[in-house]
Amino acid sequence: MKKTLSAQDRALHIELVRARAAMERQRLKRSVGELSHSLRPASLAKGVLPGLAGGDSVAGWLLRIFSLSRRYPLLTSGASALLSGVGKRHRLIKISLGLLVAWQVMRAGQKLDN
To answer: What span, in angstroms and rounded, lies between the C-alpha atoms of 28 and 22?
Structure first.
């Protein structure tokens, strides 16, 4: 059987329930904020490709792309298929991209040596 509470105990119980509800509302608000942050395009990109999401410079992006191309060779073959073509302009683009990748590899190797 349930005990009857005095007026003071009843008021205390009501305040505890109100405090618990306020804490739940705060927790829900924080969770919704975290969810909206995690659904931003940058966060989604970071979840799919962690190396590419937080690039701080062009060199960092290129180095990360290079590391991804080594991990996933299909990316390299797809990029070469996009860049293949006949003409001087395409050849110059290929050569410049190759030089840029070689420079980044050399730079990354120097960082590891130091």
So the answer is: 10
